[in-house]
Design brief:
about 60% helix
Length: about 110
Amino acid sequence: MEPLKEKPEIPLHTKWGIRVTAVIILLITLMIIKNCMGSFMYGVSTEQEQQKEYYELGYSHGILKAQGLEQAPEPETENLLLRKLYRKGYRDGWDSVQPSKKIIDPGEPPKTGQ
């Protein structure tokens, strides 16, 4: 009759590594869930009219900045959705005034300087 084989002992540093890794994964997961819940809550609690207002404000500020005119500072708000919409409007306003960039045809290979 064969004796029962014992499981090999897991080294102490490996046990600690597993625990630390589990804690790090748990913290990252909690941060992601918190961020997702915050985004959801901002989206639900912010009125469409206010969202449109911040986008248009950013758009007008982007146009003024692109034309070299003085602009008002970015509005202060804790609402991350409104900040995002303001910045998107700013970029769209800036791009609408900029001289058109040369559009590269996707079927045409890029020219080299050789």
